[in-house]
Amino acid sequence: MMNKTLSDRGRFAVLCYQAIGRAGHDAETFLESLGYSAKQFQQPDFCYPHDRVIHFWTALEHFTGDPDIGLSIGRHLPSSRGSVQSCLFLGAPNFGDALVTSFKYMRLLSDAITVQLHGLGDTSYLHLQSRCPDVNAFRHYTECLLLGFIAFYREVTGNQFKPTRIDFACEAPVNMAERTTIYDCSLHFGCSENRIYFDTAVLACNCGYAEPELLRMHENYARSALRKIEEQDFLLRVQTVISSLLQRGEVTLEAASRSLGLNTTELKYRLSTLGTHFIRERENCRRRLVKEMLRRSSESISQIAFTAGFSEPSTFYRAFKRWSHGETPADFRARHQRHDVAPKL
Description:
The protein is an alpha+beta fold and 345 residues long. The chain is built from 17 helices and seven strands. It folds into two domains: 7-210, Alpha-Beta Complex (H-NOX domain); 224-341, Homeodomain-like (Arc Repressor Mutant, subunit A), CATH 1.10.10.60. The protein has a five-stranded mixed sheet with strand order 3-4-7-5-6. The longest helix has 37 residues, at 212-248.
């Protein structure tokens, strides 16, 4: 239950949320139908699971009745001006250098999307790829993402960036006439990769202020933002190890350190830099495990206590009441299992 999930990060979620409203749809009601809130989608640190984007866009198509919803939302994406990625283009000497720099920080946009630059003489192309094969060939998400990149690159190059051809890994849609006008280049569907072709000469164009000091400042900020993501990755690794050890009944600092390939001093130090410690994370993992088992399993409460590493029922009950503001495990289970089987209106 603690496995790392590839995610699209807050900035893209914010832009999509705003674009749904700009396209004339009730974005807040739509998000609520998925179990999310508008407030979540407007937080810069919000992450949407990448393997759920097909569900998201399929639900949005049904909600809006628009079979070309990815195209529609992509056209209504707000400007990316002010984002970390856009700032990286301000101080770079040219568009090509800025591209290469920005690719190093793609995790600020998504854990799952990679962008690579390839040269073919007078023509170059960008290869955009999702690490989830099904998403890679899903039209709505791909069109929205590609239109977002194209609009962004046009903005930072003063409209000098112009696709000459686009390859889509998805199958061709019914409405091709409108797309020809929107993209203003040759379109090819059913290809092996998603690619945006453009004139290589654009790589040399200036995109903002060719100021090394400004670029260093923006890169430092991008590195800091990326470091926070990597710190969360490490904390998730620790939690995953602790959850695994709980199942084996050996939840010690020494056992966790061995599983992570660290010594105990190193693990304690790295957790302290994240503002936490091993005992707190063990407690958090126990709490999540116990509550998940009470919700989803038919195991006896005594067996759940044993699985979570409690040797005495009294210790377990005291801990659970502390976690649940006085509620007993039996009451928690009854409340949640009633909710799960209740008919949905």
